[in-house]
Amino acid sequence: MRMVPLNKKKSVRDMAFKGYGIELHPVTRADLLILRRWRNNPRINLMMVDNSYVTSHQQRIWYRNIKERFDQAHWVVLYKGVRTGYVTIKGEGPLELQKQLTGGMYSGDSQVKHKLLGYAMQIMMLDIVFEHLSVSEFQGPVRKDNSSVRQLLQQLGFCEEERKGDFVWTTICPSDFKTAKK
Among residues 19, 129, 116, 17, which one has the least CA distance to residue 75? Predict the structure, then answer.
């Protein structure tokens, strides 16, 4: 299924996307409670680079900060109209001008969660960075012991580049993703 933007605002960070059975919508104030609950869930928190507990005050500050940043995009993932995950991409300047971006995602606990959700989220994120932005390399960290995500990333064309502590940094370029996607 082809991913299509649901709106055509100027910045990709303000766009919503639909494809692969899911939708990505920019994070709103209404999403903060569920995102914080997921972020503090031990299963999810253990996989984070920063696994500190997030207070409601810290979450509100985070939200105020991300609304003003042009070097990041943050989306809540919907499946069948239910919030079920989170996706982010980050650069070192306006996203539309970056050649290299980093990103991450997680699926939260929801009644509609399914095994292919991670694939759909990852493919959608890569479609955004390679089709809507001028990115020549995308990278992200994954815990060394998270074998299922590492296997998913390899199937999508990622290469494991560097180990830093408990994490492996993975990278992918547009041509590798295009080949793996076929």
Answer: 17
